[in-house]
Design a protein that fits this description.
With 229 residues, this protein is of the alpha/beta class. It has 5 helices and 11 strands, in the order E-H-E-H-E-H-E-H-H-E-E-E-E-E-E-E. Helix 3 packs parallel to helix 5. The chain has 2 domains: 126 residues, HUPs (Rossmann fold); 59 residues, no CATH class.
Length: 229
């Protein structure tokens, strides 16, 4: 049973999309909602019907529901089978729930992208101008002047004796979920694995599929792949 919130003049909506950053956004929304002691809603939007979503997307939705419950959210909202622009759906939910603050994740856009298409942020500001927007920066590419790493792909770490083994399917023994950045010009899975541990982002070295320790490799991050939120 949800605890009754003291403040009803504030209401938080967290918008999540498939990928490792959804948890980060939900955690941020939960903290803000706790500070205000106000209602919290988690929203995701998909143009396909729920029954047509693949296993990976279904797993994300199940995980977000658990996080919503753990964060004492008032509801997890899935708007599936909806082909309208995403900002239209977000604005509709915001009006229905009396939302005053929206949390979204967005990658920095290049100048050409800004010219070629309007960002979801600008669309939301125009659609619901009296709602506060919290833009949480997300990252998926490693910033490396020599371009030593390929674009990141989703991966997992499973316990393997004293070490951890890199895998690309979510098995029952998977302990951590994150992004693997493979070194260019290597036939083996050597590179970096980026993940969240104890609310901290870590980048650890992978040598031939194995992570021996969680020593953080301190590299800056750059843009993530295009994110509707």
């Amino acid at each position: 049973m949800l605890k009754k919130k003291k403040r009803m003049d504030e209401s938080i909506l967290v918008c999540v999309y498939y990928g490792p950053n959804g948890e980060k956004l939900i955690q941020r929304g939960s903290k803000i909602a706790q500070i205000f002691d106000c209602p919290l809603y988690i929203l995701t939007v998909d143009r396909k019907p729920f029954e047509e979503l693949d296993a990976e997307k279904s797993n994300y939705i199940a995980k977000w529901k658990r996080l919503a419950d753990a964060g004492n959210a008032d509801a997890f909202i899935l708007r599936d089978n909806d082909e309208r622009p995403i900002y239209k759906v977000i604005a509709e939910v915001a009006r229905e729930k009396g939302i005053t603050q929206i949390i979204i994740g967005q990658s920095p856009q290049t100048r050409w992208e800004q010219i070629a298409k309007e960002s979801i942020v600008n669309s939301l500001i125009r659609e619901i101008p009296f709602v506060d927007l919290h833009i949480i920066s997300v990252a998926r590419y490693l910033k490396d002047p020599d371009r030593n790493y390929e674009k990141g792909v989703r991966a997992y770490l499973a316990k393997d004796d004293e070490n951890y083994r890199l895998c690309f399917k979510c098995a029952n023994d998977a302990v951590y979920e994150g992004i693997f950045f493979k070194e260019i010009c290597t036939d083996f899975n050597n590179g970096l694995f980026k993940f969240m541990k104890d609310n901290e982002t870590l980048q650890v070295e992978v040598v031939e599929d194995i992570v021996k320790d969680f020593t953080n490799v301190d590299l800056q991050t750059d843009n993530e792949e295009s994110n509707p939120f």
